[in-house]
Amino acid sequence: MSQLHPAVVLSMQTWHRMIETRDLSDLPSIVHPDATFRSPMAFKPYQSREAVVLILSTVITIFENFEYHRQFATEDGLNVALEFSADVGDKSLKGIDMIRFDEDGLITDFEVMIRPLNGLQALGTEMGARLAQYLPAYKG
């Protein structure tokens, strides 16, 4: 098992606390200004801390019964993969958050993979209804 970089440990503690309380108000403190968000619904990534915060703060209001199951880390301790499950309406989904950090423990890249397709579609419909007018400004 790989050890996380000490700064990443602190950021992960903040992340898990925010997820448990469903309050992401501290998220900007652990996201790099030039961070990238890679959506399972879009080919091109979204760029900036503001985009990452907007997307993650919205998705936490859509997911029900959200739970992390397993965590994996790379040898350098700067990359984490978190397996999760959640419900969106009457659809259940499984996913992986792949998070890259810098040496200061700031998120530089947040990529999400989700299955099955009907769960992803349900999430995409909800996210689109809430953010479609805002997201194009953040395309990389």
Describe it for me?
- By secondary structure, the protein is an alpha+beta fold.
- It has one domain (6-138): Roll (Nuclear Transport Factor 2, Chain: A), CATH 3.10.450.50.
- The protein has helices spanning 6-21, 49-62, 117-131; strands at 31-38, 46-47, 64-73, 79-88, 91-101, 107-115.
- Helix 2 packs across helix 3 (117-131).
Index terms:
3 helices; 32% helix; Nuclear Transport Factor 2, Chain: A; globular; 140 residues; single chain; alpha+beta; 6-stranded mixed β-sheet
Structural class: alpha+beta
Strand % is 35-45%
The pLDDT mean sits at 96
Number of helices: 3
- Please identify, by name, the CATH architecture: Roll
CATH class: Alpha Beta
Q: Going across the biggest sheet, name each strand in turn.
A: 2-1-6-5-4-3
Helix content: 25-40%
Overall 3D form: globular
Low-confidence region ranges: none
Distance between the termini: 34 Å
Give a quick account of the main beta sheet: strands, pairing sense, barrel closure.
Answer: 6 strands, mixed
Entry summary:
With 140 residues, this protein is an alpha+beta fold. The chain contains three helices and six strands; from the N terminus they run H-E-E-H-E-E-E-E-H.
Secondary-structure map with pairings?
Layout: H1 6-21, E1 31-38, E2 46-47, H2 49-62, E3 64-73, E4 79-88, E5 91-101, E6 107-115, H3 117-131
Parallel strand pairs: 1-6
Antiparallel strand pairs: 1-2, 3-4, 4-5, 5-6
Helix pairs in contact: 2-3
